[in-house]
Write a structure and sequence with these properties.
The chain is mainly alpha-helical. It has one domain. The chain is built from 2 helices and 2 strands, in the order αβαβ. The chain has helices at residues 10-32, 62-66, and strands at residues 49-51, 87-89. A two-stranded antiparallel ribbon has the order 1-2. The longest helix is centred in the first third of the chain and has 23 residues, at 10-32. It is extended and about 50 Å long.
Length: 104
């Protein structure tokens, strides 16, 4: 089902998606070329800024899952894989003055 809100300007929506695609394409090209990205912050566990694909992996729960009976065992693969998407995380709200991650 597709619902269109007449208050939303489709041109602005398309422009925003194009902007995001251009941003991630540019950052991806720089990342894979070995350039330094100021938005890439592994020291903050990628909780703010950009996180490249294949950087993070879900926790491994295979031993716990194997303890489930067949009726309750998930059908998904047991072994986690790397996250195959790029993300950008923004901080929410005002940071305390004593926070060490107060950057522009």
């Amino acid at each position: 089902m597709i619902i269109r809100d007449p208050r939303a300007d489709q041109k602005l929506n398309s422009d925003y998606i194009d902007l995001m695609e251009e941003y991630f394409e540019d950052r991806g090209n720089k990342f894979y070329a070995g350039e330094t990205l100021e938005e890439l912050r592994p020291e903050w566990h990628y909780l703010t800024g950009i996180c490249a694909k294949d950087t993070e992996m879900a926790r491994k729960h295979s031993e716990r899952i194997l303890k489930y009976d067949d009726e309750n065992r998930p059908m998904s693969p047991l072994e986690p894989v790397y996250d195959a998407k790029w993300r950008f995380n923004w901080k929410i709200g005002k940071r305390p003055d004593e926070a060490t991650d107060n950057h522009p």
